[in-house]
Model the fold of this input.
Amino acid sequence: MSKKAKTAITPTREENFPEWYQQVVKAADLAENSPVRGCMTVKPYGWAIWENMVGVFDPWLKDYGVQNASFPMLIPVSFLSKEAEHVEGFAKECAVVTHHRLEANPDGNGLRPAPAAELEEPYVVRPTSETIIGDAMARWIQSYRDLPMKLNQWCSVLRWEMRPRIFLRTGEFFWHEGHNAFADHEGAKGDCLHVLGLYDKFFREYLAVDGVMGIKTEAERFPGANETYSIECMMQDGKALQACTTHDLGTNFAKTFGIKYQSRDGGEALCHTTSWAFTTRMIGALIMMHGDDDGMVMPPRIAPQQVVVLPVLKGDNDAAIMAYCAKIAEGLKGQGISAKVDERDMRTPDKMWDAIKKGIPLRVEVGGREMEEGVVTHVRRDIGRESKATQSFDEFIAGAQGVLDAVHDDMLAKQRAFREKNTHEGQTLGDVIAHFDKNKGTGFVRVPVEVLGDSAFLAVTKDLSLTTRCMPFEDGGKTVLIAKAY
RNA sequence: CGGGCUGUGGCGCAGUCUGGUAGCGCGCUUCGUUCGGGACGAAGAGGCCGGAGGUUCAAAUCCUCUCAGCCCGACCA
Done:
């Protein structure tokens, strides 16, 4: 017992990253696979993260003039079929509802769909709602005075994925989908860029996530979009993950659904529509960007619980220690910090490891010493035991928010440094090949967009399992990022 | 949809070749000693072995059919 500190998660990231990821999901009690193929059950601690994300972002959308609404989960197949590229993109992953009632089997065993209850027109379970919202918008928009129309719904969608991975790619996943309509292209494009900016701000300021904003290449565009914008993040294994997208749909959906308005001069014109989203996938991204070999490391501003107060009981003075713990938690709450005393009937070390695996940003340990001296001992999750410090009660309470802010800033900086360190420059397709051959495909390679025109480009990227992530804004669209991706 | 594999207490597995009526680790319960970077002892609870049919005195084990899931490929937030 000494050499190498035992890690809470086996295997480590280095040993087997995908397996490590699964183990963190389990150890942090975030979610589990459900009896339904490819669909996850999100457990309370995991769902609390999502609720916090919604809680922060939803008001931002409302400030921007977006109104929430709710559209059906089932979409007539004919709706989906209307936009050619869109159907092609989603057809294969649609679940279809063909019947509407069940009855007992004649032999008394189990249920079967009633033979007479086949639907005349089947429905698909929504894989995304452009079509049914487009249909509604066509009715709701009459005049230029109705524009822009900004709608959003928080919901789940279903895509019958071949290779599900919890949070990252599940059959059903939760998201919000914004669907806006504008009078002209300028409005739609501005919308895409504005919302992308909101995502970026949200990721940086709340998730401590640094990503690259950019434009998708044609091959990676949303089916039915003229332009897709995204934020691309780098996971700790060097793979890319698309964290969110905004789509400029041009007049493609307006044409097929008849989303038209009468302009000021009396003429009729098509709307320019957009759609955009981020999903519960971000929870998976948080794990893969911030997690370590002891489990989850939660960004403080989105953490379901920011501070855990851990009583260290020895059998005497227990009541007094508990009272002191409660006082600390109350003090923190007074500062707007979510804190809870871990009163569970468990051994202290087990509680401590539970807090570590769940990634609670700040852990407070209170035993007889602290109580007698009126001090507080605390440890930062992102740094670990080296950060253990003891302060007076007042000093700690007053400074706790500052500590959480420092945790956030450090996590963001660390994450950004990781991406920068693992982003490599190249000039030609040959550079791309050399890099991913040698380094087994870690990180991003940035090359001039001209490389996309190389006649061998498609064959090479396919061969090496590479994708074009985006053409970053920061390079003015002159470069493209190449990487393996989730 | 092609190729490979697995179904045995909550979880992870052994037992299957060579049929004899189910076992291990973790977890869980109780008691005691413990509790500041993962404790130990003792005593317990919990499974008709994915399902259906067959062979047999006897099936987790052999045969037939069936269902479900996993991994690799094509597809994807």
Observations:
- The CA atoms of residues 315 and 321 of chain A lie 10 Å apart.
- Chain A has a mean pLDDT of 92.
- Chain A has 14 helices and 26 strands.
- The longest helix of chain A spans residues 393-421.
